[in-house]
Write a structure and sequence with these properties.
Blueprint (H helix, E strand, L loop, with lengths): L1 E6 L3 E13 L2 E6 L3 E5 L14 E7 L2 E7 H4 L12 E7 L2 E7 L1 E9 L3 E2 L7 H4 L2 E7 L2 E6 L1 H4 L1 E2 L2 E2 L9 H4 L2
Parallel strand pairs: 3-12, 6-8
Antiparallel strand pairs: 1-2, 2-3, 2-9, 4-7, 5-6, 7-8, 10-11, 11-12, 13-14
Length: about 170
């Protein structure tokens, strides 16, 4: 959500709200307008022959959603067996996709004037997925490009409508 606020000393400020989450020690944000919902761990149905970062499919009230592991997508080590993933379901051009993340954060509102380009020292896997950063107290908020994130080697992940079966996604 973009808001405009008036501040007598700084003129007009534009603010944006981001839904945040953690993957390993990295702190990410997605524009709240792109987030469909946030869910605790969901049962996954494996998809044979899917790329390694596609951990499976989840059924959200009849809508079949592809689950992409953000650790794998960022080239990070797998999460510990006792640690369950959370689901950040986002809307992309092809439909809904679940991003499997370590922990869900809060919704933060930041001033667009604090926006900067991604730092050069980011790992190449992460750098291609980051639109920019916001410097916050004690940490960086990495703004995720959701469209690029769901593009897996052979193109965007398969997104299925409510009436398609998982076997149809492979054809």
């Amino acid at each position: 959500m973009h808001e405009t606020a008036s501040n007598s000393s700084a003129g007009t400020l534009t603010r944006t709200q981001f839904a945040t989450f953690f993957v390993d020690s990295l702190f990410f944000g997605i524009d709240v307008l792109n987030v469909q919902e946030v869910l605790r761990h969901q049962e996954l149905t494996c998809v044979p022959l899917a790329p390694g970062v596609v951990k499976g499919l989840i059924n959200l009230r009849g809508q079949i959603v592809t689950a992409v592991d953000m650790r794998g997508r960022l080239g990070l080590p797998s999460r510990a067996d006792e640690q369950t993933a959370m689901n950040m379901v986002v809307r992309v051009q092809e439909g809904a996709v679940s991003l499997l993340v370590d922990e869900i954060g809060d919704v933060l509102e930041v001033e667009e004037s604090a926006y900067e380009k991604p730092p050069d020292n980011l790992a190449p896997e992460a750098r291609e997925l980051i639109q920019g950063v916001f410097k916050l107290k004690g940490r960086l908020l990495l703004i995720l490009d959701t469209e690029k994130t769901v593009e897996i080697a052979s193109g965007p992940v398969a997104v299925m409508g409510p009436h398609k079966r998982s076997s149809e996604a492979l054809t």
